Amino acid sequence: MTQSRLPQLVERFDGFSYGYRLNCECGRATSLSAADYFAEGNQAHMDCEHCERSIHFGPLVAALRDEQDPALDDNVVGQLAWYHTSTWSDWPSPDYVSRTGPQFRVALERFGLGSTHDLSQHTTKTLHLGTYEAAIENMLRRMHDQADGDSRFYLYRVALSLDPTRINEGYRDENAEKAADLTVGDLQAAGLDAVRYLNVYESMGSLSLAVTPEVIIGIQCIPIPIEDLAALLPPDPFMEQKEALDAEAVEWSDAAELISTIDPIERRRMRLGLRPDPEGLIQRAEERELRRYALWHDFEDILAQYYPPPTSHP
Ligand SMILES: [Zn+2]
After folding, report:
1. What is the number of domains present in the chain?
2. What is the DSSP letter of 204?
3. How far is the CA of 50 from the centre of ligand 1 (A)?
């Protein structure tokens, strides 16, 4: 798995509770919450905020979600952290062609295309990058739609070195022109290293990039699901307190055993100072009692942090 030291990258975690903006025939977009989008009320029709028309909403009319999206700035695109998910543990592998070539050959021959078909069309596809949310949603879509439910995935965080003058102007609308089929040759012919496009499938309304492999200067990768989750988790928050209480319990039982050998009336007299206590037994027992109380108090404090009492409503 490739791991490189990445330059400082700009993160932008939008989260998954975003709404949508949808295009009307009048040329302007109207906002809709995710809840309303998925409820598909009025047979997925909504009023346009700008004209009398009604918008039949869905991916086909998806608009750019944030008109101030930082990825619109040619000088910023290359400073952002970009993400990709794949079932390949060494994406983007330099031996991709040699490994997938034979599979493509078999498929092409089955369709009677055989050796006449230009294999490079498939093997020189551009690499696709998106926001963190788009990458995660891509993984979930593949698990759902493409029988990858049991596959191991890899989440890649990617650093780019981009010439701001070799990025397409504005963004391509995936509804109008499919970005998935862009080849490295297409980009080269257009004098570009990256094509910015509106993603209408994952994190709908976000901007993604199709790039030539050469602009990728660093990659970090984590497998999903993480194999040894326990190693990544913070230690048990109660461990220290539990150990202290256990140690104290041992001390306490030793002291209690000693004290039990002394007659109860003698013990009371010793506590009141009416009898000598040469080994300081009674004092030690009282100290233990205080220590036990303090430990239990700390333990309760920690418990309260992790399990706060339910908020009371007036
Ligand atoms: Zn309208």
Report:
1. 3
2. T
3. 5
